[in-house]
Design a protein that fits this description.
Layout lengths: L1 H15 L10 H8 L3 H13 L3 E5 L5 E6 L1 H7 L5 E5 L5 H17 L3 E5 L3 H9 L5 E5 H5 L5 E5 L11 E6 L9 E4 L4 H10 L4 E4 L5 H6 L5 E5 L4 H6 L2 E5 L12 E6 L3 H10 L2 H12 L8
Parallel strand pairs: 3-4, 3-5, 8-9, 8-10
Antiparallel strand pairs: 1-2, 5-12, 6-12, 7-10, 7-11
Helix pairs in contact: 1-2, 1-3, 1-4, 1-11, 2-3, 5-12
Length: 297
Amino acid sequence: MKKIEEARASIAQVLLGLHPGDTLPRTLELAKGAGVGVGTAQAALDSLEADGVIALSAHGSRGRRLVTSDTALLWRDSARGALTAVLPLPESREFAGLATALSAECAAAGVPLQLLFRQGSRTRIDQVASKIVDFSLMSLHAAQHAAAPLSWIPLGEYTYYARDAVVTITRRDQAPGHRARVGIDRSSSDHVALTLSAFPDTTHVDVPYLFIPEALARGEVDAAIWHRTTSSPVMTASGLDLHELSGAAPDPTLLEAVLAWRGEDTGVGSLLASTISVPRLRAVQREVMDGVRVPQF
């Protein structure tokens, strides 16, 4: 029985990467992948079908095809544990809204979800690439320029940064002059792109994003790109000013969020595609951003 369970987990991982209509690998290949005999592999496959996890159709010498599959149940059988994701720190309503929406979507589908939070898109990409997490929330720009090969689900415009959410921050009563010393966080490809776009010809000073307000207060930098968050009113009251961006609007790919995973991990892609409804996700995010839904994740 233990051998059948182990084979079932191995075969479930293979099936996660298939779509309805795809031809299954032959039983001998499934057996080799699971490290069991052909009979054990067939018994595992039969048990998945008997339990309603999958439905197959036979096509003689052309093998068997996948008719339907319950990806949430396949994920459970694959023994991969909870689906894990890393998101930006949920200090803004955009990110808190998406964390709430992801939690709601996975709970409704019966998929256990574990959320982690890390500042810096490059850090989050590294965690996906090194298999610490299954997927991440990042901007479309970050996904397109990642060193690791990623696949993603786009969530639409203004889901990463809301309209007019990106601003320039300075000390009070100071204009964000283009000759200023500008703080830049190189761990975030988004912050680098936004900074270079708004301040291409200036002195850039390396500052971790979360320390930018302190660097401004100490006079170490004169300006920086900032994301309006729930802390912005406190910062304003503490002697900092927020200014609308001048010049051209930010690259649209910096404003759109995506759910990104390792390109070769088709199981995660299939699970997300079957679990996540982008319209529902955006609706929940909007409720949180409008203050009509309490963030819960």
